[in-house]
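It is worth pausing here to work through a concrete case rather than discussing structure prediction in the abstract. The textbook approach is simple: state the sequence, then state the predicted structure, then interpret. We follow exactly that order.
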Amino acid sequence: MKKYSAVIIFIIILLGLGYWLTRPVFYVQGEKGLITEIEAYDGLPLQIDFIHSVQKTPVEERLHLSDDLKTIKLDSTIYHSFGVGLPFLAEEGDWHQEGNDFIIDNMNRNFPKLSLRTGVGTKLTLTVDNEVFPVYESVPPGYRIDIYVAPRYQKYLDR
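Step two, the predicted structure:
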């Protein structure tokens, strides 16, 4: 009887480990290592803040993880100025102005993965699930950041 109990416990542990390893995880990966990983869930919020390279004013991009946990959806962008180098087409989304801010809502753009680079003076900052990562403070200009969802086991295969 003890032999069967040990086998059953072993099988339960294996199934639990298999489930844990296959769960989707939201990764923010730098060229030289992991910045953060968070258990992926429907609607996981991501915000990208940076200084626009032409206008030299702040930009906020608001995104979230899709229902199927496979894509990152760009919902809206907030510009704190309007001019050269900024989108202006009606099909970009729903445009409106609030005070000095120019907002594009309902953008509904889907990305399987995002790749960003830090730039001189861009102050690239990521906010994932309300945790702030001022990436520009810890990496040099030109540093690549990849944002994606993958099963947890992928992290161990990529080493």
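Step three, interpretation. The chain has one domain: 25-157. The CA atoms of residues 47 and 127 lie 5 Å apart.
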